[in-house]
């Protein structure tokens, strides 16, 4: 066990020696090329499911070693970071849609694995967007206040989708619709206020409670490990939501909640000290902001997704904006 811990610590030091934890890293940039190619090969939703599993692996590594390498490098870095792996897949899907390979859903079909078309161009597109995703995310981090108070990964996914539509799409980025058809709809069972509000409340209670449980356990671990777990507590319910996307791929009509759970988990942690470390009030904050995130995703789908021919991710649009709102409002108290 001691040898394992020492090896993990050495691995973390090795990766961080390339500047990965603080700024640009040539090592991580090169690896992001591979991560992008991987995402383009397996497809967007499949890549995102792998992000979910990676979150759990990352938490396991953090809990046993005190290292955040499983989260920063694997789950949210150049391997399965959505800004690298998922965003690159979205670009590959858009290219396939432009060539007429994805049928009626065009470039919005992010379940099909692009590698199956046998066109290496899609993989190279993924590689380019993987590298681009890494570079953009690092640049966003450098923006004063905003870079440390938004979800840089989600914002990069969002911006990458803009570029994807401009390059491979034929429809405008913004095109509001109040009436959705079956063909246009993102999630038919999650578009009415009664639906997304209910889902938002329930998912937020789960996420807020889980994140606060992580906070409750912090005194039981060493300070180094506690810091890693506290900074990433909201990622745990997010990981659960990401894994459930597997059921969506397989055809089950399940709630899509990762934009809700990561926002609610973050709100619970950020507002916990603001409300005097009151668990119930922290849960209330989680629900309020989680429902807000659910509503923002619905606005995003009607504004940018429904009438588009490429995938602009409603959850990503919601996550970065919700994260910023949660942090900005907390500063007022």
TrEMBL record:
Q: Which UniProt keywords apply?
A: Membrane, Transmembrane, Transmembrane helix
Segments traversing the membrane: 20-39, 46-65, 71-96, 117-136, 196-219, 231-249, 280-300
* Domain annotation DUF7973: ranges: 27-171, 183-331
- Asked if the record carries the keyword Flavoprotein, the reply is no
* Highest taxon of the lineage: Bacteria
Q: What is this protein called?
A: DUF7973 domain-containing protein
Q: Which organism is it from?
A: Varibaculum cambriense
């Amino acid at each position: 066990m001691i040898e394992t811990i020492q090896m993990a610590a050495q691995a973390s030091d090795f990766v961080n020696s390339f500047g990965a934890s603080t700024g640009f890293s040539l090592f991580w940039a090169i690896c992001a090329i591979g991560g992008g190619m991987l995402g383009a090969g397996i497809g967007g939703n499949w890549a995102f499911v792998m992000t979910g599993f990676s979150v759990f692996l990352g938490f396991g590594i953090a809990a046993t070693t005190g290292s955040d390498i499983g989260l920063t490098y694997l789950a949210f870095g150049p391997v399965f970071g959505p800004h690298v792996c998922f965003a690159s897949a979205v670009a590959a899907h858009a290219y396939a849609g432009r060539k007429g390979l994805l049928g009626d859903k065009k470039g919005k079909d992010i379940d099909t694995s692009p590698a199956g078309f046998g066109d290496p161009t899609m993989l190279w597109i993924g590689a380019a967007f993987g590298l681009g995703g890494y570079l953009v995310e690092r640049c966003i981090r450098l923006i004063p206040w905003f870079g440390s108070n938004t979800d840089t990964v989600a914002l990069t996914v969002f911006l990458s989708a803009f570029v994807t539509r401009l390059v491979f799409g034929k429809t405008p980025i913004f095109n509001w619709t109040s009436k959705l058809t079956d063909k246009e709809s993102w999630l038919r069972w999650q578009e009415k206020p009664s639906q997304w509000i209910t889902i938002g409340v329930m998912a937020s209670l789960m996420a807020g409670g889980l994140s606060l449980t992580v906070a409750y356990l912090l005194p039981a671990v060493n300070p180094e490990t506690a810091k890693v777990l506290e900074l990433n507590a909201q990622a745990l319910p997010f990981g659960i939501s990401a894994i459930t996307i597997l059921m969506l791929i397989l055809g089950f009509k399940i709630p899509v909640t990762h934009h809700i759970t990561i926002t609610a988990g973050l709100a619970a942690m950020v507002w916990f000290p603001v409300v005097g470390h009151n668990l119930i009030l922290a849960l209330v904050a989680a629900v309020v902001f989680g429902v807000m995130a659910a509503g923002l995703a619905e606005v995003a789908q009607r504004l940018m997704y429904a009438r588009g021919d490429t995938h602009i991710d409603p959850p990503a649009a919601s996550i970065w904006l919700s994260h910023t709102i949660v942090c900005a409002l907390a500063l007022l108290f």
